[in-house]
Amino acid sequence: MSAAPEFVAAIGLETHVQLRTASKLFCACPTAFGAPPNSQTCPVCLGLPGAMPAVNREAVRLTVLAGLLLECEIGLRSKFDRKSYFYPDMPKNYQISQYDRPLCIGGGLDIETGTGRKRIRLTRIHLEEDVGKNLHFETSSGVDFNRAGTPLMEIVSEPDLATPDEAFAYLLALKQILVYGGISDCNLEQGNLRCDINVSVRPAGQGRLGTKTEIKNMNTFKGVHRALTYEIRRQIETLRAGGTIRQETRRWDDAAGVTAAMRSKEDAHDYRYFPEPDLLPIELTAEQVAAWRAELPELPAARRARFAAEYGLPDYDAGVLTADRAVADYFEAVARKSGNFKAASNWVMTEMLRALGEREMDIGQTRVTPDALAALIGLVDRKVVNMPTAKEVFAILFEQGGDPAAIVEERGLGQVSDAGAMDELAAAAIAAHPAVAQDYRGGKKAALQFLVGQIMKASRGKADPQRAAEALRRRLDG
Question: Residue 329 sits in which domain range?
């Protein structure tokens, strides 16, 4: 039995998510990733004098959809505010954000922990514009403003997370929900999802939270886990030594594996928030929110439960298949068309995901349509082809697409199951290996499998193994 902990941690995450929109939040500049530096800018997102912003309606819709997926209360009247601060990648020297009237309030999501399911509460979700990106070279630095003005949703959690493992599980669950909902691509390599960490420790049994530190701009889930592991240990060791924790912003040095102080932590009054004078408040109706609610997809947890119940899949299979919405959609199409649910699960989980992983593709890029894979499953079920041949056909489908039945016909891959042909193959195998045949007659049943293998070899893998075994038994036992 493990001893009770001396200290406990409280972790809250502020997760910044770029929305899946074609244009920026307050102008028509595109948001495509990878364009040449400063090629996707205009007077509005560069903050030039006299430029006037206009709100991207799709960004508002996606933020509300995220709030509905995360069980938030939707504010029918919200507004934008100016958050004043100077930084090289903030062209206006202020950021248009939301302060006291955000679009989404409260909410939460469930995560799985070592001790069961845990509810992580949300404080709010608000909409703001992203900043640009500083680029550092050998002897100079530059700023790319392409990202400045991209719609950015900030999801603020309550300090309900207690361990680095829980923070990791929370980020995974949040990412899965947002991708399922079409809210964001959540591509960490492209900076679609980043987070700031707030963490404090306190003696076990103390209700009041300890002094928190903030770790800024984390862009990998593994980095979040490592940074929390270090920072929690650092704070505990400081308190044990009789020191005090300063409220400050720290940065994570991934190479050194440590956090380092950057500056004292700002409070809200330091940003001098005031209502954005160039934008009217956002007014939504209950009818509009209800219409958006009707668009919500089935969430991963509900889909896992349904796959287990409707298709009779083991929990593991259901979890793998629902981890990605596109994979889940693909499986469901194959399962319904083939009628063989377990076979559909096996083919998607093994052959399909393996082939996609080897080529670093996603399932939307495969040439194997759900109709084609369902037809291939049907060929196996009807014993037109055996499993080794079916895998050969799948490889052809994956490379060039097409109809599995036509491929079998054109390449002469149909299974040998004719009784006469099978009897001839059995006779040839026995004649070629009389000692093995004698071993079988002497009681060594494993010898039969060797002879089945010889038939498979002679037929170039096209024989039905079950019928081959039956033909051999007839001759050997007769």
Answer: 300-411
